[in-house]
Amino acid sequence: MQNFEFYNPVKIVFGKEQIKQLETLVPQRKKVMMLYGGGSIKSNGVYDQVVAALGGREVIEFSGIGANPQYDKMMEAIELAKKEDVEFLLAVGGGSVIDATKFVAASVHFEKDPWTILSERQRPSKVLPFGVVLTLPATGSEMNCFSVISKGDEKLGFGGDPRLFSKFSILDPEVTYSLNERQLGNGVVDAFVHVVEQYLTKPSNAPLQDRFAEGILQTLIEEGPKVIHVNEHYESRANVMWCATMALNGLIGSGIPHDWSTHMIGHELTGLFGIDHARTLAAVLPSVLRVQKENKREKLLQYARRVWNVQTPDADKSIEEAILLTEDFFNSMGLPTRLRVYKVEEKDIESIIKSLRNHIPVNLGENQDIDEAKVEEILRKAL
Question: Domain spans of the chain?
């Protein structure tokens, strides 16, 4: 196991009717900015619950944050927060809204161009405190200190600053009842691949982290289909929501190597073709595993045996069976595993690789051995 530091101060408030806890969680006599997306929280009742719980606090609203939050839109929120002397931020939404809120929190008192927080990893001197009401389980942003912001087709991440942990995150599984099948399927697969990026790397003698990761994967496999096919099934929603949070709060990734090549390639596909983030992951991951089979061999065999109960004696057949079962799972969640579904063609591969190199000038993967040739191979196999 590698040396590591683990720190996570986020207070989780989990369960039914817990949005009312905002009454005590949000500081009194602070001007609050509530950030949210396209307005679905007004039709599903979450907005009314939040407003009621905030009581007589002065609240400024900022809405219209879309998937892959855009820098220009965030600058509007930053200017409004400055103008209104906002003292506390409240993200009400999924990962995009939470990521956006983190960027606003880091930028309101930043004296330079906020873009340099992303492009040059500039560290802000002050970060506004914020809390979260989660409405879509997927990214784990509610319990980590990382964020991804877009500027046109460019997606840049920032974080690692402990001040970018939320003060609290409220997770009420009942708010997911209004989500559609696409949102639910995306969330399950997003969480699944988050785990795989930390688990399917190279052996590091970290059996506890492995068992944690395998438990999350098995729970998503068991509970994921229920959130789509069983209406308003509280237990499955609760289990999936907690899996998504645990997948990326730092616990299972402590002391082990990480991959993230599927995410890096996926970000380019989202930027260039507008494909949902989770759907890029579903299409790219199987090809990454096939191309990197030899480097990931020991962990892939462990994955086959422990997660999918594959008992085939032939190692290569065992690995391929596990990858096929992974593809079947993604497809069962409504996420295709081929890029051709999204009209991505062989002629597009060169531009995808060029864009990736512009954003990430180094090789990908836990061994930093995924060069341009391997990215091309991955994309060809994913078509």
Answer: 11-175, 180-382
| Residue-wise pLDDT tens digits, 319-375 | 999 999 999 999 999 999 999 999 999 999 999 999 999 989 999 999 999 999 999
**Residue pair 147/141 in contact by the 8 Å Cβ criterion:** yes
What count of residues does the chain have?
Answer: 383
* Domain range 11-175, CATH architecture: 3-Layer(aba) Sandwich (3.40)
Q: Do domains 11-175 and 180-382 have the same CATH topology?
A: no
How many Cα neighbours within 13 Å face the side chain of 15?
A: 2
One-letter-per-residue 3-state SS of the chain: CCCCCCCCCCEEEECCCCHHHHHHHCCCCCCEEEECCCCHHHHCCHHHHHHHHHCCCCEEEECCCCCCCEHHHHHHHHHHHHHCCCCEEEEEECHHHHHHHHHHHHHCCCCCCCHHHHHCCCCCCCCCCEEEEECCCCCCHHHCCEEEEEECCEEEEEECCHHHCCCEEEECHHHHHHCCHHHHHHHHHHHHHHHHHHHCCCCCCCHHHHHHHHHHHHHHHHHHHHHHHCCCCHHHHHHHHHHHHHHCCCCCCCCCCCCCHHHHHHHHHHHHHCCCHHHHHHHHHHHHHHHCCCCCHHHHHHHHHHCCCCCCCCHHHHHHHHHHHHHHHHHHCCCCCCHHHHCCCHHHHHHHHHHHHHHCCCCECCCCCECHHHHHHHHHHHC
**Tens digit of each residue's pLDDT (9 = 90 or more) over 157-204:** 888 899 999 999 999 999 999 999 999 999 999 999 999 999 999 999
Q: Which CATH class is domain 180-382?
A: mainly alpha
For residues 234 and 173, what is the distance between their CA atoms, to the nearest angstrom?
Answer: 7
Helix axes 297-306, 207-229, angle to 10 degrees: 50
